[in-house]
Specification:
By secondary structure, the chain is an all-beta fold. The chain has one domain. Helices cover about 0% and strands about 45% of the residues. The chain is built from no helices and 16 strands. It is globular.
Length: about 180
């Protein structure tokens, strides 16, 4: 948790060669919470995960995987999440997990998520898959996903909610 300092998380999955190795660039799981609670200008939250190095024909995993109730929350600082796995999913916001902007007014945090996925060994991956909650009181939500040869650029199975003045923009590219 921070009020004014930046939170910058970077992760790269290891290499596997057994044909069934899966790995995530970053996995944040359980009741783990990442939050920026300060008023503007507060510390940004940036999460960059890369799982493109996972080897073998069944290269599962995600660039960034929020799992089992993990949360990323900010009042006024931007939340930026970027995930890449050209052989599976870029970003997964799993069931019971959440990315939330709780601030109000002009200084509310914006959420920007970019995911680059592709054809996975078990049926394909998504650029961004949301099974949990992405919400904002007043900040903008922008999801940009691409899955060349995969399933969906952006797949929404959970909930995206903007309750105030924020805009929601989904950009999805699938060239299967």
């Amino acid at each position: 948790m921070t009020q004014t300092g930046a939170i910058d998380i970077v992760g790269t999955a290891g290499t596997g060669t057994d044909g069934f190795t899966t790995g995530n660039g970053i996995e944040i799981a359980g009741s783990f919470a990442i939050s920026s609670t300060g008023a503007a200008p507060a510390g940004w939250i940036t999460i960059n995960g890369d799982a493109s190095t996972v080897g073998g024909p069944f290269r599962g995993g995600a660039g960034v995987f929020l799992n089992f109730g993990a949360t990323v929350t900010s009042v006024s600082a931007p939340i930026i999440i970027n995930g890449t796995n050209p052989a599976d999913s870029g970003v997964i916001v799993g069931d019971m997990s959440a990315v939330q902007s709780t601030g109000t007014g002009a200084s509310a945090a914006n959420i920007t998520m970019t995911g680059n996925g592709g054809p996975g060994g078990f049926g394909g991956g998504d650029g961004i898959s949301t099974e949990g909650l992405i919400s904002s009181a007043d900040g903008d939500i922008q999801l940009t996903g691409a899955a060349p040869g995969g399933d969906n650029g952006v797949e929404v199975e959970g909930s995206i909610q903007a309750s105030g003045d924020g805009n929601v923009t989904l950009t999805s590219t699938d060239t299967a």
